[in-house]
Amino acid sequence: MVNPFVPWFIDVAENHGIPCALLWIHACSLYSIYHRYFKNNTFPNFENPNETIELPGLPLFEVKDLPDLLLPSSPPSFYQLASDFGKRLDKVKWVLGTSFYELKEEIVKSMDSLIPIRPSVSPFLLGEEKENNSVSVDMWNADEGSDKEIGELSSEFLEEIKGRYLVVTWCPQEKVFDQWTNAFLLAQVFKIGVRMRFKEDGVVSAEEVERCIMEVMEGSNAKEMKNKALNSKEAANKAFEIGDSSDMNINIFISEIIGKSFKASV
After folding, report:
1. Are 181 and 29 in contact (CB under 8 A)?
2. What family does the database annotate (predicted)?
3. Three-state SS string across the chain, please?
């Protein structure tokens, strides 16, 4: 079993006659994008960030919503890593996704012709937080932080996270993550989040963070977002029950490994 960041290991498995399973640690949508980019579709000119892209199972999105690894701004070494992975997709027998079928049904269906993908949500992601007590704010910093960026953080926040974070100064995080696509999915597809707006200098102000939090907590769509999130949580829990999608997918995967046919219980 390999992940996308060690594509050469797929060759090792092939050379030894070992069937290879890919543990896809990103959103299922990202797998669809990568696969079609390297294997199928002709994508538009990436120089225009507002150019629209249409892919099966996904709504219209723009070039700027693609993962950074595919964009011209990506460092050559990162793009090469993605390319090396894409070239080896045909050698993978199984794909295990960290999701569940009911959440991304249309996306998974659209990939049936590409390769069997088994969405299987991790049980460790379920039921860890107390009910209704948190808002997730996903942010990352590209470098050690300018005075402008640090100035947007309150002293209370810095004190609260003291000793609980890690800044890796040598890693250009804004170039190795796929958060643009994740943000698009959360806000435009699943409709359980809002996107922050950057200022011209690329900094997100404290006021903008406050606006987004208020919109999620008390805005006109707050109740709808909460209900959608709760429905997704219930569906995730159900997917792990005996006989439901994730349980069946895991059993099918194990049965294929040991060479036995799997019969679903009714």
Report:
1. yes
2. Belongs to the UDP-glycosyltransferase family.
3. CECCCCCHHHHHHHHCCCCCEEEECCCHHHHHHHHHHHHHCCCCCCCCCCCEECCCCCCCEEHHHCCHHHCCCCCHHHHHHHHHHHHCHHHCCEEEECCCCCCCHHHHHHCCCCCCEEECCCHHHCCCCCCCCCCCCCCCCCCCCCHHHHHCCCHHHHHHCCCCCCCCCCCCHHHHCCHHHHHHHHHHHCCCCCCCCCCCCCCCCHHHHHHHHHHHHHCCCHHHHHHHHHHHHHHHHHHCCCCCHHHHHHHHHHHHHHCCCCCCCC
202: left (phi over 0), alpha (psi -120 to 50) or beta: left
Evaluate whether 204 touches 174 at the Cβ level (below 8 Å): no
Q: Point out which residues pair with 219 in neighbouring strands.
A: none
Give mean pLDDT in consecutive 10-residue pieces for the chain, a chain of 266 residues: 89 91 83 82 76 83 85 83 88 81 70 55 40 46 47 58 55 55 83 84 82 90 90 80 76 79 45
Residue-wise burial string across 49-60, b where 16 or more C-beta atoms lie within 10 A, e elsewhere: eeeebebbbbee
Q: What is the pLDDT of residue 142?
A: 37
Label residues 218-256 b or e (16+ Cβ within 10 Å = b). eeeeeeebeeebeeeeebbeebbeeebbbbbbebbbeeb
What are the structure tokens assigned to 266, written together? 């009714």
* pLDDT confidence of residue 136: 45
